[in-house]
Specification:
By secondary structure, this protein is α+β, with helices and mostly antiparallel strands. The protein has helices at about 1-15, 15-40, 60, 65-75, 90-105, 140-145, 165-185, 205-215, 235-250, and strands at about 50-55, 85-90, 110-115, 125-130, 155-160, 190-200, 220-225, 230-235, 255-265.
């Protein structure tokens, strides 16, 4: 009986080409498609991470879930990393320029140049003559910054007109000399690739940790006080490795948690050109 039913069903099936396709051919084709599409997904060499930029505005700071998700998907130690994330702050240079113009509102000119070196090696540069003859103020200052490889700085020269016309050559020299004098009186900060990290400590070990940071030239960005002390710090690769060992072995002080927040360029000095 069973064999007869099977023969009958089979004859009906082979007479219906559409049914043959959806019963046999379609599952095979679908399986082949998924095999070709995802068979090599574990091969990290063939997967290129996606470059994204995250603006660190007020909304981003409030959304803890989103921050944690971006952090996890951008972690270089994560084998399933999807994103190459760049954190972009608000346009600090433009804000500084606007502040100076507001402060010296009665000045004739506030010419500027700024040069930003991104963590991926790209440059963002801008300059303005602010009403001076074209190419006599902003461009010469930007050229000096470029020649001396000075980045992540905004230079603003404010000039009150004193009644004497300097001419194009005189203006170039005046603005260039002003910047050169500012550089002489400033401390240039050398930056290196590093990390912003968060470390949680018991109150009893906070003084030991501060001494450790001072001894190893680790910058403590800020500290929060709750059940534990939570510090945000800046570390390079060597310091990161030392603190990870300290976290595991707990030799000098107790560390409750140690987490890398993001990669960033760090400096060992707080002085900045202004």
């Amino acid at each position: 009986m069973f064999i007869n039913n099977f023969k009958y069903s089979f004859k009906v099936l082979i007479r219906n080409r559409g049914l043959i396709f959806w019963t046999f051919a379609f599952p095979i084709l679908l399986g082949l498609f998924f095999y070709l599409a995802f068979s090599d997904i574990e091969n990290k060499e063939n997967f290129k991470q996606i470059d994204i930029a995250v603006i660190e505005n007020e909304e981003f700071q409030k959304d803890e879930f989103y921050k944690e998700a971006i952090k996890e998907l951008s972690d270089k130690n994560n084998s399933s990393r999807i994103f190459n994330t760049k954190y972009v702050s608000k346009k600090e240079a433009e804000e500084k320029i606007a502040g100076i113009k507001k402060k010296y509102y009665d000045a004739k000119h506030s010419c500027y140049a700024f040069s930003v070196l991104e963590e991926n090696g790209s440059k963002y540069q801008k300059c303005s003559d602010d009403g001076e003859p074209s190419g006599t103020a902003g461009a010469p200052m930007l050229e000096i910054l470029e020649k001396q490889s000075i980045y992540n700085v905004v230079v603003i020269v404010t000039r009150y007109f004193g009644g004497i016309l300097l001419g194009t050559g005189g203006l170039v020299r005046a603005y260039s000399d002003s910047l050169k004098e500012a550089i002489k009186k400033s401390t240039l900060v050398e930056q290196e690739p590093g990390y912003e990290a968060e470390i949680k400590l018991p109150y009893a070990d906070f003084e030991k940790f501060k001494y450790y940071c001072k001894k190893n030239n680790i910058n403590i960005i800020n500290s929060e006080y709750s059940d534990f002390i939570i510090c945000k710090i800046e570390v390079n690769d060597a310091e990161k490795n030392r603190l990870e060992i300290e976290f595991r072995e707990q030799n000098n002080f107790k560390i409750v948690t140690f987490d890398i927040i993001r990669q960033k360029n760090i400096s060992k000095m707080s002085n900045k050109l202004d």
